[in-house]
From TrEMBL:
Cited function: Involved in targeting and insertion of nascent membrane proteins into the cytoplasmic membrane. Binds to the hydrophobic signal sequence of the ribosome-nascent chain (RNC) as it emerges from the ribosomes. The SRP-RNC complex is then targeted to the cytoplasmic membrane where it interacts with the SRP receptor FtsY. Interaction with FtsY leads to the transfer of the RNC complex to the Sec translocase for insertion into the membrane, the hydrolysis of GTP by both Ffh and FtsY, and the dissociation of the SRP-FtsY complex into the individual components.
Protein's name according to its UniProt entry: Signal recognition particle protein
Organism in which the protein naturally occurs: Defluviimonas salinarum
Enzyme class: hydrolase
Pfam (any one): SRP54_N
InterPro entries registered for this protein in UniProt: AAA+_ATPase, P-loop_NTPase, Signal_recog_part_SRP54_M_sf, Signal_recog_particl_SRP54_hlx, Signal_recog_particle_SRP54_M, SRP, SRP54, SRP54_GTPase_dom
Catalytic activity reported: GTP + H2O = GDP + phosphate + H(+)
E.C. designation(s): 3.6.5.4
Family affiliation: Belongs to the GTP-binding SRP family. SRP54 subfamily.
UniProt-listed NCBIfam families: ffh
Keyword tags: Cytoplasm, GTP-binding, Hydrolase, Nucleotide-binding, Ribonucleoprotein, RNA-binding, Signal recognition particle
Location(s), subcellular: Cell inner membrane; Cytoplasm
Membrane topology annotation: Peripheral membrane protein
Length: 504
């Protein structure tokens, strides 16, 4: 799915190469693709349609910033508009739980992750807000569900209401309220029974529980992977029981999170939290920026674009772009690329911003890879003469020795640097031929997991290899193209050439 989207956006970028103001035609062409991208990310059709219409009006006629392409600009406008829709007025993490004991009702379909989320949230309230929480399972159909909550409670150190066989959901809710009041709890959470589909019996039961508990918050738990159906679920639950917020689970999977946009647009209910795994600490406050990036399938590329813009002078970018297009790439260019990387937070910083690269970044950390490598390479270049920097072909044995000694390093380090330089120069040449649009497309492909470019995040062996490849030195030929295009197009163009996990 990611590949499709990146190709599609690549196509948009290819077409949008004119500078100046964004023409209606440019915007229309780009948005047509964005609409398909939204649908692929499981955003419902009417929502995608309305959204694109609103963005079209906003984007047409906007002046194009010199340092970005019109394609990038449209994507940024789309991205910002997504955030506008996704972000509610209030802080998503702030639940109304004053006036103890405050009841929180948890609702949702079976298997949506309701019980797990109940426990995760209880843990969060206990740890972060120092609340005394009582949890109760109202799932009278499945005794196993009640036991599951009790086990989770023990695990996280949160009390659960003792199980009494034969009670109805309403009776349990009453008992929970009583116990919470007598026991001096700040919050009590009611984990209702789920059904595979919405049915009347379920809704009647939840309504009856609601009437007894009068919840301060009614949180709808929805599986983030369900996509389109999420809207129906949200609409139904909201109409029947009244929902105050949504929790999207399984956002650690490869779902694109379009459900978030649809639910927010259709029901107007705020997304409060996202579940990011099975563990008890895998619950985070909803962040509109992250989901917007994810829906567009771009990780935090927009942030990367912005950061690159901040740290790189536009003229310098323009100058480098011209050099790259001519296939020119000497040691001075390499040095400024390495310095640029350091400014952007080093390898770790850049990786952290890439979709799905968080894990790899952690492994790099563990493997002891840090920015020393970058600094060493800069030191080597500093130890070269002006002539050598302009023309690295001059570097024969004796010069290499002198350069290594000057930086206090081994000759092998110089060789690694030269190898990396050669690979990057080759890539620049190739990219130069492709033109701006082509470069971007190439970059996107690389970043979004074009075949072989990134390790499979679920394959520990591939991840380990990738970390090793990185550790053995960016110099050992990371596939050659560290932040290749950073200069020219404000995107780490060369990342496609990183060759993560790929033996060269
Ligand atoms: N990967 C991942 N798994 C999750 C997440 N939230 C819940 N799960 C898993 O999803 C499965 C179902 O979760 P439950 O909490 O039992 O679902 P439920 O909605 O309470 O189901 P019923 O009790 O049958 O109604 C469990 O194996 C959870 O560990 C999440 O955010 N990410």
């Amino acid at each position: 799915m990611f590949e499709n989207l990146s190709e599609r956006l690549g196509g948009v970028f290819d077409r949008l190469t004119k500078q100046g103001a964004l023409s209606a035609e440019d915007v229309k062409a780009a948005l047509r693709e964005v609409r398909v991208a939204l649908l692929e990310a499981d955003v419902s059709l009417p929502v995608a349609r309305d959204f694109v219409k609103a963005v079209e009006a906003k984007a047409t006629g906007q002046a194009v910033t010199k340092s970005v392409t019109p394609g990038q600009q449209v994507v940024k406008i789309v991205h910002d508009a997504l955030i506008d829709v996704l972000r509610g007025a209030e802080d998503p993490g702030a639940l109304k739980i004053d006036n103890p004991p405050a009841p929180i009702l948890m609702v949702g379909l079976q298997g949506s992750g309701k019980t797990t989320t109940t426990a995760k949230l209880a843990r969060r309230l206990k740890e972060r807000e120092k609340k005394r929480v009582l949890m109760a399972s109202l799932d009278t159909n499945r005794p196993a569900a009640m036991e599951q909550l009790a086990i989770l409670g023990t695990q996280i150190g949160v009390d659960t209401l003792p199980i009494v066989k034969g009670e109805s959901a309403v009776q349990i809710a009453r008992r929970a309220k009583q116990q919470a009041t007598l026991g001096g709890y700040d919050v009590y959470m009611l984990d209702t029974a789920g059904r595979l589909h919405i049915d009347e019996v379920l809704m009647d039961e939840v309504q009856a529980v609601r009437d007894v508990a009068k919840p301060r918050e009614t949180l709808l738990v929805v599986d983030g992977l369900t996509g389109q159906d999420a809207v129906n679920v949200a609409t139904e639950f909201d109409a029947k029981v009244g929902v105050t917020g949504v929790v999207l689970t399984r956002m650690d999977g490869d779902g694109r999170g379009g459900a978030a946009l649809s639910m927010r647009a259709v029901t107007g209910k705020p997304i409060r939290f996202v579940g990011l795994g099975e563990k008890m600490d895998a619950l985070e406050t909803f962040e509109a920026e992250r989901i917007a990036g994810r829906i567009l399938g771009m990780g935090d590329i927009v942030a990367l674009v912005e950061k690159a813009q901040e740290t790189l002078e536009a003229e310098q970018a323009e100058r480098m772009m011209k050099r790259f297009q001519k296939g020119l790439f000497n040691m001075n260019d390499l040095k400024s690329q390495l310095e640029q990387m350091l400014k952007m937070g080093g390898m770790q910083g850049i990786m952290g911003m890439m979709p799905g690269m968080g894990k790899l970044s952690k492994q790099m950390d563990e493997a002891g890879f840090d920015d020393t490598v970058l600094r060493r390479q800069i030191a080597l270049i500093n130890s070269m003469t002006k002539k050598e920097r302009a023309n690295p072909d001059l570097l024969q044995a004796s010069r290499k020795k002198r350069i290594a000694a000057g930086a206090g390093l081994e000759v092998s380090e110089v060789n690694k640097l030269l190898k990396m330089h050669r690979q990057m120069a080759d890539m620049m040449k190739k990219m130069g031929k492709m033109g701006k649009g082509g470069m971007l497309k190439q970059a996107m492909k690389g970043m979004m997991g074009g075949k072989g470019a990134m390790p499979d995040m679920n394959d520990p062996k591939a991840m380990e290899e990738a970390a090793k490849a990185l550790k053995s030195g960016i110099g050992a030929g990371m596939g050659g193209g560290l932040p290749g295009g950073l200069g020219g197009m404000n995107l780490p163009g060369g990342l496609s050439g990183l060759g993560f996990g790929k033996k060269k």
